[in-house]
Specification:
The complex is a heterodimer of chains A (about 110) and B (about 110). With about 110 residues, chain A is mainly beta. In chain A, about 0% of the residues lie in helices and about 55% in strands. Chain A contains no helices and 11 strands. In chain A, the strands form 2 sheets. In chain A, strands 2, 4, 5, 6, 9, 10 and 11 form a 7-stranded mixed sheet that branches. In chain A, strand 5 and strand 6 form a beta hairpin. Chain B is globular and about 45 Å long. By secondary structure, chain B is mainly beta. In chain B, strands 2, 4, 5, 9, 10 and 11 form a 6-stranded mixed sheet that branches. In chain B, strands 1-3-8-7-6 form a 5-stranded antiparallel sheet, with no helix packed on it. In chain B, a hairpin with a 6-residue loop joins strand 4 and strand 5. Chain B is built from no helices and 11 strands. Classes of the chains: A mainly beta (about 110), B mainly beta (about 110). The interface between A and B is medium-sized, with 20 and 20 residues.
Chain lengths: ~110, ~110
């Protein structure tokens, strides 16, 4: 079975540029999560979708961050404009019902 | 304010011996706990979980113990193998209708020495 697929795996860009991270959840999973991992704060939930609807975006740090889930098999996390402090590893996870979350391998983002 | 704490950033254990990873929590509403394992350049992988109605859950070489009165849980790996070398995250949640939020500790890096 294919797991959660994230792209790109690595992204290096200059500050001020728009960054788009992509996620394909596991087929049949009805919940999707975006996390950010930093040394200082560990793994933090940014936003949670259930049945493609954003339920909780209280973890999104600023208006520069936005996330969409146009259908059950695709989600994006966008940062515009990007800043050096956005550098982190971003994980997408999905799950079915109350089962444990399955994580993708992450996108390592570096903003110069 | 960290609600889930893993106070040991790292742990080294000899192959074949027991590895014990610890986790403390402060939120008494947490009633379901999970351990995730993470290799470099990969995402966290679910390992084992425990509900607050139990005090022990076992799956092969992995056992999780929960002490609710102390707000403490631990993961035991016996016997430890070199392939167990990874970062282990403790996570906690409040179950119930609409629950989804996992609160993670910062992880403990386990090194199993051959």
């Amino acid at each position: 079975d294919a797991g959660v697929i994230q792209s790109p795996r690595h992204e290096v860009t200059e500050m001020g540029q728009e960054v788009t991270l992509r996620c394909k959840p596991i087929s049949g999973h009805n919940s999707l999560f975006w996390y950010r991992q930093t040394m200082m704060r560990g793994l933090e939930l940014l936003i949670y979708f259930n049945n493609n609807v954003p339920i909780d975006d209280s973890g999104m740090p600023e208006d520069r961050f936005s996330a969409k889930m146009p259908n059950a098999s695709f989600s994006t996390l966008k940062i515009q404009p990007s800043e050096p402090r956005d550098s982190a590893v971003y994980f997408c996870a999905s799950r079915q019902g109350a089962q444990p979350q399955h994580f993708g391998d992450g996108t390592r983002l570096s903003i110069l | 304010d960290q609600q889930v704490k893993q106070n040991s950033p790292s742990l080294s254990v000899q192959e074949g011996r027991i590895s014990i990873l610890n986790c403390d929590y402060t939120n008494s509403m947490f009633d379901y706990f999970l351990w995730y394992k993470k290799y470099p350049a990969e995402g966290p992988t679910f390992l084992i979980s425990i509900s607050s109605i139990k005090d022990k859950n076992e799956d092969g070489r992995f056992t999780v113990f929960l002490n609710k009165s102390a707000k403490h849980l631990s993961l035991h790996i016996v016997p430890s193998q070199p392939g167990d070398s990874a970062v282990y995250f403790c996570a906690a949640t409040v179950t119930g209708a609409g629950s989804y939020q996992l609160t993670f500790g910062k992880g403990t890096k386990l090194s199993v020495i051959p």
